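FW: tagging you since you asked about this chain on Friday. Here's the raw sequence from the shared folder, copied in full. Didn't touch anything.
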Amino acid sequence: GKRLLSTADKHALIASLGVEYYLTPDFEEIKGLTPEQFVLGIVRDCNARALVCGENFTFGAKAAGNPELLRTLCAPLGVEVIVVPMAQFEEKPVSSTRIRTALEGGDIPAANAMLGMPYAIRFEVQHGAGLGHTLGVPTINQLYPEGFQLPRSGIYITRTHIGGVWYPSATGLGSRPTVNDDATKVTCETFIPGFSGDLYGTDPVVEFHAYLSPSKKFDTLDELRACINNAAKRAQEYFA
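HL: got it, structure written out here
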């Protein structure tokens, strides 16, 4: 499945929950272990006193282990096993697949409810074509790295975090049909009314809050400008 969070953001999130040490073993190195070897490795090498897993957890080669087997293997070692029930949304378990499907459909409220926080990106600001400046609505231009889940193409109400301040913003995601010849290139452009400054090379957080409309090809740049300004106005009203 495609990524929802970068490794750095995942680590920051886990640290914010009070976790002091975080180990990520290379999957290739551990995927061949039997369930017994897996448990012994964690208990012996990590000196575990208790293990916590979700109720759908599988481990060991060919996913042979489940929470029941984990309890059985840990009992003689004096290690407690805590099984956490699956988080639910609309009476069905939350999964990364459901979150990706919500993003693909532009259903941001559902994606955010399942994530437990707003869906957000933190990608480096790139030099765009400079069109925003020409239009009088300078935008920041971010490119989705390979392997990340893309939300539905279109225009979103977002807010952008710069220098400790959250700014209401409007974000257009897609292949920029009015000005782009290369339809394969997906850009993510955010217009932040009221902000001026150089953000090239920084990686501001852009949080997605609502889907406004699909992208469409405008006949004139004036129509495009009007659309961007209208989206920005709606973002300011949304956060007011």
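FW: The mean pLDDT is 90.
HL: agreed, and The helical segments are 7-16, 27-30, 35-45, 67-74, 96-104, 108-115, 131-135, 221-239.
FW: great, closing this out.
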